[in-house]
Amino acid sequence: MKKKFKKTAMSLLLTASLVCGLSACSTAKDTPKQESGGAESSSQGGAAGETEQTTASGDKKTFSYWLPIHAFTAKAMTDHNDHPAAKRLEEQTGVFVEYINPPVGQELEQMNLLLASGDNLPDLMRFNFKQKYRGGVSAAVADGVLLDATKLIEENAPNFMAFINSDEDLRRGAYTDDGILAYFGSIIPAEEMRGLPFQGPMVNKTLLDKAGLDIPETIADWEEMLAAFKEMGVRIPFSFGCDNKFAGLYNAFSGAYGVPAGSRFMDENGTAKFGPMQEGYKEFLTLFHKWYQNGWLDPDFLSKVQNKEVRNDFDAGEMGAGLLHISSVIRLPLVSVQHGKEEMEAVPAPYPVLKEGDQTHFRHYVTNFNQTPCYISADAEDPLTVIKWLDYLYSPEGIQEISWGTMGDERYEDTYYVDEEGKKKQTEFVTNNPNGLSPEEVMRQYLLRDTAMVWDWEMQSLMYQDERQQKGWSVWTDHTDFDYVMPDEMTMTADENDEFSKIMGDVETYVNEMSAKFIMGIAPLDDYDKFIKTLESMKIGRATEIQQAALDRYFAR
């Protein structure tokens, strides 16, 4: 009989707003620490679940899986049990999975309700306990919510462990401070993908050419360009997705002064520092205050959201420059015409520096462990079945199923083919879907992408074959790394988390509000010393000590 987990767990989930205090508050979002690993995965684990557990029919293993539905998947179904690829995966693994799907957008609320109910937990849960549970994975294990399956995983998940053991940073990040294998089930991007920037400075080159200027590299170059845009009558010379917390800058511009933007900590050669306490942060705010006064910075920057207003303004040809996704180099020429403008060209610009030859240490990048991981609950009756099933998804066969789908199975539409050079390519059913679905929608609705465990570069690279996109990667990495970004995989103890959260809840609000006031001139920059003293009185020094302790433990793993 399954045991009940401790009801005290219901009070330990954190709201998403507190997650940012632990790491660097990156998006997909922001930014964590990275590695350059890959691995030759092995399928020696065989079919998943070689145990005695069976279904009612007596011929298959089974377990339950709490799995959120991606918004694109939800356009076609509200239940993964009805997903066409679920049957294929069952045939390949010999395991029947009962999917439990929380309503889209209510994942945190539903998990809180599940924990509060005291009922038996599903066997496997795709939910970020590391960031959203007080004390992280170790505390969830101690509270009887999650199973410490470290030894079982190490001994029975050869494909997953091949990835983890292929790189020191991957291995360090996979374990907690006390040695629990925390990230089993997390998506691991292919080696070629890790560390790549997908967001960065972007300029409307059509407007730049009219101004007679080169692509900007230094802060001075940017000021010359923005002044020209303003004089030319460009409605919004520069904007970014601030969303009240400066996340959409990806630390560009502030990085030129050696600090992150907003209420964030940094790792300067192993020393934890709070960005706004550094002299460079005042210089960054002084720069943006000047831009705001001169009309170069969008007057409505504070409320702008990256993938809504900012992208729309840029696509419409109303914005000269900003921080955007690499896809803008393809999208702008098409969409600008749709908005009744001339065909415009977009071009990536380097992350700005103070003077040529400088190296900055903040930028956007793809993390080692990308997106929400899976965890085995302490209530799981047959964890070995769960482990072997998950490990199959890290095998070559599992990666192909989740990344590419089917070919030659008359029961399903072909989603890929192999060309004359032996390379896999997506079929027109994916790239030019007869039902008008985008490629991403097709992949979510016909492949079980919601439970992906490896981002396959051969497939991912199909979306980035355009030379303009590849040039963007080169431009954004030329003299910029992410060495000063706090490691996303570092963790705090439960007591540290309590103390840190109490401090940073007020600090984050204060920093973001004052940063906006300094930029907009509501508060004079002459008051910056008062700002620093207020942070000191709010115990930012103690919060920094906690971050330092967590950072030290991370590097000691």
Helix- and strand-based class? alpha/beta
Residue stretches low in confidence (pLDDT < 50, at least 5 long) are 1-12, 14-57
Main sheet overview? 4 strands, mixed
Radius of gyration: 24 Å
Average pLDDT score? 88
Q: Please, how many helices?
A: 22
Would you mind describing this structure in some detail?
The protein is of the alpha/beta class and 557 residues long. 38% of the residues lie in helices and 10% in strands. The protein has 22 helices and 14 strands. A hairpin with a 5-residue loop joins strand 12 and strand 13. The longest helix has 27 residues, at 494-520. The model is unreliable at 1-12 and 14-57 (pLDDT under 50).
Summarize the structure.
The chain has 557 residues and is of the alpha/beta class. It has helices at residues 71-74, 84-93, 107-117, 129-132, 136-142, 150-156, 158-164, 168-174, 205-211, 219-232, 279-293, 306-315, 328-338, 383-392, 396-404, 428-431, 439-446, 457-460, 467-477, 494-520, 528-537, 540-556; strands at 61-66, 95-100, 124-126, 188-189, 199-204, 236-239, 265-268, 271-274, 319-325, 346-348, 374-376, 416-418, 424-426, 454-455.
What layout of secondary structure does this protein have?
Layout: E1 61-66, H1 71-74, H2 84-93, E2 95-100, H3 107-117, E3 124-126, H4 129-132, H5 136-142, H6 150-156, H7 158-164, H8 168-174, E4 188-189, E5 199-204, H9 205-211, H10 219-232, E6 236-239, E7 265-268, E8 271-274, H11 279-293, H12 306-315, E9 319-325, H13 328-338, E10 346-348, E11 374-376, H14 383-392, H15 396-404, E12 416-418, E13 424-426, H16 428-431, H17 439-446, E14 454-455, H18 457-460, H19 467-477, H20 494-520, H21 528-537, H22 540-556
Parallel strand pairs: 1-2, 1-3, 4-14, 6-9
Antiparallel strand pairs: 3-11, 5-9, 5-10, 7-8, 12-13
